[in-house]
């Protein structure tokens, strides 16, 4: 079995004047150093490029001086990429294809003059074909599409804005205790409601941050990880699902996602049940995404996650600690590296003031496209059952 | 409030026939030998998986599944998911009179500047269309 032995995170947020390549290089070096390894020990590299230019590519290896790699690929499953990279790294290690695999993401959508939303919008505006007809009609960003998904979900189950807001408030309470988080001032439900509509039914505070930065993890064998500097975080289960439900009569658009199948697969591989999961680090591009993912994983029934959030269960002191670093909504947005980073910190027991007491088993989700791609990791400590 | 720069609708090789239809005021869908209808960019029938896809004209009638509003544009843009009567769903904007979820709409055709024509929807008149 493979384990995550190193974790690297650059400065994140309003970080200007550095390219994705420089941020990725620093993240990989930090992750290797965190593990007690050097770059010379790295013999595998998996790269997840984002949208802003220059986007990461395979030249990262050469330019970082990684000259004897046995595994090297650039891959994307959009927001599901981090979980996919870790699963592929674990398989490479298990198969003996490589001993020390670095998985890296870096992006620089923000500039001194742009909040970064434009970098993501540009991606929509490049479309041709049917997608370009949708863009011309007014669907100029990913948020427009998620707003339609959230509307279907909310209208089908009667989920309220108080319940969506409870996700934002709960995660801000975690972020208040996270020194890395961009948003650490307390948030009230009233402030949530007062935040402007981005695309109704999504308020500004339903939407993730946009951040510059880089993050990396080092995956190696569990045996080797035990001899390294940090407590091993075992990669005990993983799953992917790409359900791509056709947009047509009877379609599940907005109501359910690939989390259902990928979560089931990851838990089955880990030989664990939902009751064993002590930490939920859920991809939270929008508050709504957290709710639908918790339901798909089975932590509650369809349409019930809003009430769960409103009960306080997801926040500090709650029964189901979720997004314990503040997530993409309040901490930082580095695609799937955000939930993965927090899971590793918590499972190691290194989360300081926000450390969750029972932290042996974490479920980590990734969500890409418009709910089209999903990855799940089950990560466990050395002392997990 | 700022008006959003919207990129024009642009054809690619796969959707040339679809855009030709829109220009002529016809909404085309992919059609398989079994009579199923799929969205214009599929490579295989949504229902039976057939790769033998031609084109067939849709009625242009449907009902709304989901609604969203972009208030950053002037005027506000009302976005809709529309379940076409033939099965496939269309994502576009609603023009004119507002409708509730589940209510009937009909496809219209618009063209901005140099871009291709594209479909939008309006509330369906009470006497049909
Ligand atoms: Zn068919």
Automatic annotation (TrEMBL), chain A:
Thiolase C-terminal domain location is: 254-380
List UniProt keywords, sorted A-Z.
Acyltransferase, Transferase
User: Which superkingdom?
Assistant: Bacteria
Task: Return the broad EC class.
Answer: transferase
One Gene Ontology term of the molecular function aspect: acyltransferase activity
- Documented EC number(s): 2.3.1.-
Give the matching Pfam families: Thiolase_C_1 (PF22691)
**Does S-adenosyl-L-methionine appear among the keywords?**
no
Q: What is this protein called?
A: Thiolase family protein
UniProtKB/TrEMBL annotation, chain B:
Protein name per Swiss-Prot or TrEMBL: Zn-ribbon domain-containing OB-fold protein
According to the lineage, what is the superkingdom? Bacteria
